[in-house]
Amino acid sequence: MLSLNEKFLIGSYKKVFLVKSQRGNPVETLFKLMLENGLIDGVLTCSEKKGKATPSLFLKANQVKVNPLNSYFGINTLLKRALQKYRLNKLVVFAPPCVFDELNKTQYFGIGSNWTKTAVALKVGLLCTGALTENSRQLEAIHLTGKKEKVKRFFYDRANLVYQLESNREIIVPVNVHHKYILTACRYCLNMGAKGTDITYVPKKEPNEGLFIVRSERGWYTIAQVQKIAPADLKLRISEKEETEELVSLLRDKSLLNVNDILERVELGLPTPKWSDNKLRKFYRAWNSIEGNFEEEVF
């Protein structure tokens, strides 16, 4: 049986830091400091413009603004502009796991596709329990509150996904409810922890706080450089083990819902978004096996 444990749900990492920024959102602060000090030459992500998630390429520190909601659509449409028009070679990409699942594959596509290694200086993933459109998010909020009110931001508190509404009221979003409203492809994802990145960012209750799950040497070096440059702007301390365990609990509950949907479609012989036949066979064997070993990268 496939174990939905920390290794599978969050993946390998070096350290988990609780980060507090003196300049607002901690991941925005990280990118601004890197741009200001020449560590990178651009940030590719999504921002909120006129209430809509809009793919954005930032070249100046004072422009950087990430989307406070989990809607990151169309980021790949700006990659060509970043690489060919602006000739960027120290690019940061900030996005949910699905973007990196595809980005990481391109390095194996052959001649002309090695920019994934050469142009992307840092991959920062957003821990994601499923993305929503603006309409589905509104319907989810109505389901939970009984009235129409815009969601201002989302974060994770203990083992819960939480929405902050425009009235500043906070509501816990049960994973079984959230599962009904997310995009169809998100219901078959088993990489919610953004394992293929240098750093995974987890937004917390306080807008200027978050978790940085540092995975790679490149991520570790980046954090060290930024701390050396501006120790007062971005304060880090090693996170309590309890916080990681709470994340694992949340991701396990959501993964069980996703696994149920995957197995249902496999047994019915239906196509599954994001899954090839070979990948499904590997997953099905692992899920039904009594062996404890599996290849994490398969999923």
TrEMBL record:
Classification via Pfam families: FrhB_FdhB_C
Domain Coenzyme F420 hydrogenase/dehydrogenase beta subunit C-terminal: 89-224
GO molecular function terms noted in the UniProt entry: oxidoreductase activity, acting on CH or CH2 groups, with an iron-sulfur protein as acceptor
PANTHER family, alphabetized: 7-HYDROXYMETHYL CHLOROPHYLL A REDUCTASE, CHLOROPLASTIC
Name used for this protein in its record: Coenzyme F420-reducing hydrogenase beta subunit
